[in-house]
Amino acid sequence: MIEVADFVPHAPVEPEVIEEYRGRVPDDLVEIWERYGYGTFAEGFLRVINPKVYEDEVGDCIGKTQGDGIAIPIMVTGLGDLITWEPSAGVIGILYRLGRTVGLNTTLHNFLFMVDLDGPEELSDNLHWDIFPKAVAAHGELPYDESFIFVPLLSMGGQAKVENLHKRKTIAAIQVAVDLQGVIGH
């Protein structure tokens, strides 16, 4: 049984979403959907999302070209990064703000275990979250559908400072990042 100690529910997952993705995503994610729904955890940094909405809105921004070509959006971060489930690779973070991808773990269960076990250290090591708590302190907590985004983007000469982080709709921010920077192929 998956335990997410600080999960803050946002909404229940629609039964049709569960059925559409059952067998395509890890059973642990289906369990989270059924038990907790959509919501946030890891101090609000990680968000469990509707993969259908993200596939429809940013599917062309995922950049999956290697392996089996399958990348299903399952989470986003409070810094506008997309986390995907890729059957051939595991849990992958697409860090649009840094222009690269990172392997987070080969299984969702182990990724969640490491986040629970090491908390901020795990988030810092793999998702470079260190500025996130400072942004929350300076700008307030994020609504479920928003992330802190560097303005201007780091790739456009922006600096990684709290004062350069602004609340933006996550989906639109991913689309803008890809429009300006290009798709991050992996």
Largest sheet, described in full?
Answer: 7 strands, antiparallel
Compute the number of structural domains: 1
Class inferred from helices and paired strands:
alpha+beta
The overall pLDDT, averaged over residues, is 95
Q: Major sheet: order of its strands? A: 1-2-3-4-5-6-7
User: What's the gyration radius in Å?
Assistant: 15 Å
Query: Uncertain runs with pLDDT below 50, 5 residues or more?
Result: none
Question: Looking at the structure, what is the overall shape?
Answer: globular
Give your account of this protein's structure.
It is a single chain. The protein is α+β, with helices and mostly antiparallel strands. It has one domain (8-181). 34% of the residues lie in helices and 24% in strands. It contains 7 helices and 9 strands. It has helices at residues 15-21, 27-35, 51-58, 108-118, 120-127, 131-139, 170-181, and strands at residues 8-11, 38-41, 46-48, 72-77, 82-86, 90-95, 100-105, 146-150, 165-169. The strands form 2 sheets. Strands 1-2-3-4-5-6-7 form a 7-stranded antiparallel β-sheet. The protein has a two-stranded antiparallel ribbon with strand order 8-9. β5 (82-86) and β6 form a beta hairpin. It is globular, with a radius of gyration of 15 Å.
